[in-house]
Amino acid sequence: MSQHNDWAEMQTALRTASDIGFAEEMPTGEQAEFLVDALRRALVAAQGLTTGPGATGCRIHPHGAIDPLYGDKEDPLPPGWGKCLLCNDRRRRAASARRRAMPR
Ligand SMILES: [Zn+2]
């Protein structure tokens, strides 16, 4: 992703986050999930704006966020997973979709 895209993405995400965060009513659970998602996207995009080589080691998201669980000894990531939070989130979603699809 180019830095200009990151910038636009960050602004969109921050606008969404502030719409929810500064609404007159306290956000519902679902709105709070949107807020978390928007803030995460803003964070990843903002990190894309920082200079220097990407730290994720990911070819698709070299400037993405690093998975906070990377290197966690008590809750290690599955083997083969990298540092990239975006890729790991995608793997997590795929894994939970598979669990939901399994017959009980
Ligand atoms: Zn990635």
| SS-based class | mainly alpha
Uncertain stretches of 5 or more adjacent residues: none
Alpha carbon gyration radius: 16 Å
Counting DSSP E segments of at least 2 residues, the number of strands comes to 0
Return the domain count: 2
Question: Topology of this structure?
Answer:
Blueprint: H1 3-21, H2 29-49, H3 85-101
Helix pairs in contact: 1-2
The structure holds zinc ion (ZN).
Tell me what you see in this structure.
This protein is mostly helical and 104 residues long. It has two domains: 1-51; 58-104, no CATH class. The protein is 55% helix and 0% strand. It is built from three helices and no strands. The chain has helices spanning 3-21, 29-49, 85-101. The longest helix has 21 residues, at 29-49. The model has no long low-confidence stretch (mean pLDDT 87). The structure holds zinc ion (ZN). Residues 58, 60-61, 64, 84, 86-87 line the site of zinc ion.
List the main descriptive attributes of the protein structure presented here.
mainly alpha, 104 residues, binds zinc ion
Compact summary:
This protein has helices at 3-21, 29-49, 85-101. The protein is mainly alpha-helical. Zinc ion is lined by residues 58, 60-61, 64, 84, 86-87.
